[in-house]
Write a structure and sequence with these properties.
This protein has 8 helices and 19 strands. The chain is of the alpha+beta class. The chain has 3 domains: 52-68 and 75-163, Nuclear Transport Factor 2, Chain: A (Roll), CATH 3.10.450; 167-269 and 405-429, Nuclear Transport Factor 2, Chain: A; 278-393, Distorted Sandwich (Glucose Permease (Domain IIA)), CATH 2.70.70.10. Strands 11, 12, 13, 14, 15, 16, 17, 18 and 19 form a 9-stranded antiparallel β-sheet that branches. A 5-stranded antiparallel β-sheet has the order 1-2-3-4-5, with helices on both faces. The radius of gyration is 35 Å and the shape is globular. The relative contact order is 0.08. The structure holds zinc ion. Zinc ion is lined by residues 300, 302, 304, 383. Zinc ion (ZN) is lined by residues 300, 302, 304, 383.
Length: 437
């Protein structure tokens, strides 16, 4: 300061006045621009954010982590709050010191997109605050989707949804049955969900409770979803094979989302092979047994599914209820008539589905009643019969009518896809996977 005052002494007074004026002017400008700083800052982060926001949409850059974004060097200072049950936007905003007006503005901005309308306990909301002013709110909905609401000045907010695409990879799994599809499938590394899907694909051809034998085999190719090299979920089964007592069943997923045999026949049939979910079956009956109550050998014209009392029984096909009531040794029984020539019978029920009455129409898979031990039985089970033109058929063996196959035009799309994926499946099975290209 001494040097400065010495320096100033050399200046004549008019010059000093001008200098003082200039100095004051600079101060004013400096103050004015610093008061505009938040907007200035906002515009630079907007640029960074834009490039960041766009990049995840490019599949080639999908390896870039979504959030919190470490690739943003002058990273926003996010404050996170966790949603608890009973929380609303107001309570969450309050928790980081924001006002009802902030809630109102953000609600207005998200009104159309409903982006913040579904928050679940355990979700987090992330905030960027600048001197107590709300700059951004972020809701990471899933690893693949997040929403950012940004302040654009003057209480105006914009909403953007950032989505990413996972990388889909095909996975091959195979196994040999030694106890059940459920046990051996899990041992081979299949999730419960995939096992149910697999059983549902072949459930029209194979009764997974009673048909399965040791040395039966399964093989499938299904999709896995990866994000940043981490597995984030499973996709569809693309092709599957089940070998049951030497008979090979193949199923390929078509673009319509359904599964077909290589010849284009739908895996879905007019009848379910089993009216009880296979994993609900607790034990198997010996079909050559002496009648447990009558102690005599007599023809057994159906299949027995032993399961806990109350286990749901499904209609094996679309049809009409032609009998609902007690029927001698059968106990509580329902008989369904299907498409003219077929009837199915369900016996020993503990109770009926109250909505299913004589004359009711039922859909395939609809629950018609529950397993019990009414009638002449020693333990709870479903006795199931299948008749064609009044003649008993073995429900495990009877050939079911096919649902309409793919037409010629559909086959043109389906055939090459089916051939390729089946060749791939076969190659994997033999341990010589084809090069993927
Ligand atoms: Zn029986």
């Amino acid at each position: 300061m001494i040097t400065l005052s010495k320096l100033l002494q050399h200046f004549p007074k008019p010059y000093l006045l001008v200098l003082t004026f200039l100095f004051l002017l600079m101060l004013v400008i400096g103050f004015w621009s610093s008061s505009q700083a938040p907007d200035g800052l906002e515009s630079t982060t907007t640029n960074t954010r834009l490039t960041l926001d766009l990049s995840p949409k490019l599949p080639t850059e999908s390896a870039q982590p979504l959030a919190p974004a470490p690739s943003e060097p002058q990273a926003d200072n996010w404050t996170s709050v966790t949603v608890k049950s009973g929380d609303s936007l107001s309570t969450l905003f309050q928790r980081v010191g924001l006002s009802a007006q902030d809630v109102y503005r953000v609600t207005q901005a998200t009104k159309k997109s409903q982006s913040l309308s579904t928050l679940f306990p355990g979700d987090t909301l992330d905030f960027v605050l600048d001197n107590g002013e709300l700059q951004k709110v972020r809701h990471i909905k899933t690893p693949l989707e997040q929403i950012i609401i940004s302040h654009q000045g003057k209480g105006h907010y914009t909403v953007e949804t950032i989505t990413r695409q996972p990388i889909i990879e095909a996975r091959f799994v195979q196994g040999i049955i030694s106890s059940s599809l459920f046990v051996d499938g899990q041992r081979a590394g299949l999730s419960q969900k995939k096992l149910m899907e697999l059983a549902n694909i072949f459930g029209w051809d194979i009764d997974f409770a009673l048909d399965i034998r040791k040395q039966d085999q399964f093989a499938l190719i299904y999709e896995e979803k990866y994000l940043d090299d981490a597995l984030i979920g499973e996709g569809q089964i693309l092709a599957a094979q089940f070998t049951n007592r030497g008979e090979v069943f193949n199923a390929i997923r078509h673009s319509d989302g359904n599964y077909y045999s290589p010849k284009g026949y739908s895996m879905r049939k007019a009848f379910l092979r089993s009216p009880v979910d296979f994993f609900r079956i607790s034990s198997k009956y010996n079909l050559n047994r002496k009648h447990p109550v009558l102690k005599t050998s007599r023809p057994h014209r159906g299949v027995d599914y032993a399961a806990a009392t109350g286990t749901p029984i499904k209609a094996s096909g679309d049809g009409k209820v032609i009998w609902r009531g007690t029927k001698g040794g059968y106990g509580r029984t329902i008989i369904l008539q299907h498409a003219g020539i077929y009837t199915t019978l369900y016996a020993h029920m503990s109770k009926y589905n109250s909505k299913v009455k004589k004359g009711s129409r039922v859909k395939q898979g609809q629950i018609i009643g529950y397993i019990g031990s009414s009638g002449l039985v020693t333990g709870p089970h479903l006795h199931y019969e299948f008749r064609v033109n009044g003649v008993h058929k073995n429900p495990l063996k009877v050939k079911f009518p096919n649902v309409k196959p793919l037409n010629k035009e559909q086959m043109e799309d389906f055939k090459p896809v089916a051939n390729t994926i089946l060749a791939q499946l076969e190659a994997y099975r033999l341990g010589t996977p084809l090069a993927s290209n």
